[in-house]
Each structure stands twice: as C-alpha cells, then as structure tokens.
Amino acid sequence: MKAKAALTALVLSAGVVLVAPASAQDHAVTQAAVNTYRASNGAPGAAAVVREQAGMWGVTSGTTALGQNRPFGAGDRIRAGSLTKPFTAAIVLQLVAEGHVDLDASVETYLPGVVRGNGYDGDLISVRQLLNHTSGVNEYLWLGGGINPIEHLRPHTLAEVAGWGLAQPPLFAPGAGQQYSNTNFILAGMIIERVTGNSYDQELAGRITGPLGLTGTYLPTPGDKSLPPGHVRGYVGRFLYVDFTELIEPSVGLSGGGLVTTGADATRFFQALMAGEVVPPAQLAEMLEPAAGGPVNGYGLGLERFPLPCGGEAWGHYGLWPGYQSVAAATTDGRSAFVAANVINNIGGESDSVGGGNSVHRGVTVTTVLCDQG
C-alpha cells in the first residue's frame, strides 16, 4: 500500500503532446473543449467519447498514466463514482415495472427497522424520495461526520455504509427539501437486494450489463482494490500528485458510487436508457420528472437534466471518485457522450452534488460535446 500512496511529482508544461484518433480531426470543437477541461483541472489526461446512431468516436488529451504516453481509449476503465446512480435507479425502476416495488411506498415497507431512530422514520420516507434526494437522509461520506478515514480502507456491506449516514441526524423532514446524499442510493441498493433476494452486483449483471453487453462495467469485489489491464490511473493533487488508483476500498461506494466503467459502456448505457431499452416508457418518464423545488437544472430519479447550448436537453449524471471525475449524458435522439479526467484536486472539497462547483467544467464540456456535429 505504501507504493500506492507514494508521491509522484510532475510539473505540467505548456508543451504537453495531445494525442487524438484520426476521427477527431472533424471535431475540433470537442478537442478544444477537452483540452480546456483538462487544463482547468490540472489533470494528467482527459477524454470524451461520443456515441451516435452512425457509430462511436472520441478525442483524448494528455495521458492516462504519469510519465507515459498513454492516450485515453473508449475501452479504458475508470472508477465511475456517482455514474453508478443511474444504473441503480434503472434497476429499481425495472422492479417497479414488474410490480415488485412501489415508488410511493415507504422505505419501511422494504427495509423494516433499518431507517429508524436518530430522528428518522422509515414510514415517512418513500422510495421515490431516496431516488430524487428529497428524503432528508444525511450523507455518509462526510469525514466531519465522525467517520474515521481508516474506514475507507477496509471492506464494507451496504448496511454498514448506510449506517454511517443514518448515524447523523436528518438534513430535513422527508419532502421538505432536496439535498444530494449518497446514503439514499445505498438504501436503494439494499432495497434491490431485499426485494430480489440477490446481491446488487448479480442484479446489475443480469438486468443491465449483461443484456447491454457492457463488458467493461462491473462492481468490484469488496476488498479488491485492483483494476484489470486497460485502465486509467487516478490521481489526487495539482502539479504534485498522489496515485489513488488502488488506494481507496471500492465497497465505500457500492450501489451509490462503486462501479468501474468505460466511455464505450457509459455511452451505450445512457443511449439505451434514453431510447427506452432499459426501463419501460412509463418508468423512464418517472426518471425524467424533476423533483419539485429542486435545483434549476432539475434532478429526477437518479438522473440530472442538462440543457444544451444548441437547444433541447440531455439527461445523465456526474461521477466523482478519488482520482477520477466524469460525466455522461444522452439525448432522446440517440446521441450520448462521456467526459472524464484522471484527477481530483482534493478529496473533501469536491462534490457530485447537483450544481456543485466541481461539476461546472464537466457539465459545460459534456453539453459542448453533445452539440458538436463535426
């Protein structure tokens, strides 16, 4: 582990070579946006992958590993962070379509006794409120909430992680506000397991990654911090970097942020989701309904709305994990995009929350990319 935490020093010069596939020559707007995105974050590398009806293309800037000339590829794996949430929401909505879950039923219905005490009453919180962050359930990741940082280095269960959030008082009464909280989607993962009798990763494979052929997307086994060959190295810092690729325990994320994915897979998933191939039309409409009184952009059920500068809108999500930041979104006309960089500048000060400061560069970049017609 000491090798993983070793400090790597690099001063980024103005002469960094930008490597892009030949298909990117017709997408100067996207290349410029990705270059700017990488520079604004001080990232060793960044990339965009775009999927259209006619096929897939991408651009890359910088490198996936310090000290090496390794441009991003569409099949390179990253730790996806909260890009996991739309996958989790889609599984819940499939269960809704099958009659196994009622969005407006209480959490207590599916997780008796779990959300109880410390100001919480699971009878008053609905499944819908978990998925659109209006439950008032507190965030489990705040280090200031009494969680020992060492907890991020050993394996965990969904119930244990949810307990970290529930040990902190509610943010507000259910339905009285909207606040992004990863604990909501940990509880959603617990509902999936309780209703189906299977593990979250089994349901993920059987319902989404298997049917869609997402061969680069999976939930790591708790305790396994490694990534398979063909992955992006993830760093924390700016100019001076620490390699976090295999440092943080993956089961800290689970159904709220634990997935590993690729640009090719993320664009395939969001394209299929918006095309009605993942959940039926009635449930997709529920996912695209923003919570009343939420942020300007709107957050539905595990999806955020992205207004496009060229007109119209896309739906997707941000992703953040120590060493990685990403965003993916798709329009209803079959166009999807994924943008990622292999750095975050600090662990505690950046957020995947809707409208969070770190999300601004990613949001602008992905909407620019979605509007680039070449």
Automatic annotation (TrEMBL):
Q: Which domain of life is it from?
A: Bacteria
State the species of origin: Amycolatopsis magusensis
Q: Which residues form the Beta-lactamase-related domain?
A: 32-339
EC class name: hydrolase
Name the record gives this protein: D-alanyl-D-alanine carboxypeptidase
Tell me one GO molecular function of this protein.
serine-type D-Ala-D-Ala carboxypeptidase activity
Per the UniProt entry, the signal peptide is 1-24
Provide the alphabetized UniProt keywords. Answer: Carboxypeptidase, Hydrolase, Protease, Signal
Per the UniProt record, which EC number(s) apply here? 3.4.16.4
Ranked from the top, the taxonomy reads: Bacteria, Bacillati, Actinomycetota, Actinomycetes, Pseudonocardiales
In terms of Pfam families, this protein maps to: Beta-lactamase (PF00144)
The record ties this protein, via Gene3D superfamilies, to: DD-peptidase/beta-lactamase superfamily (3.40.710.10)
Q: Which InterPro entries match?
A: AmpC-like, Beta-lactam-related, Beta-lactam/transpept-like
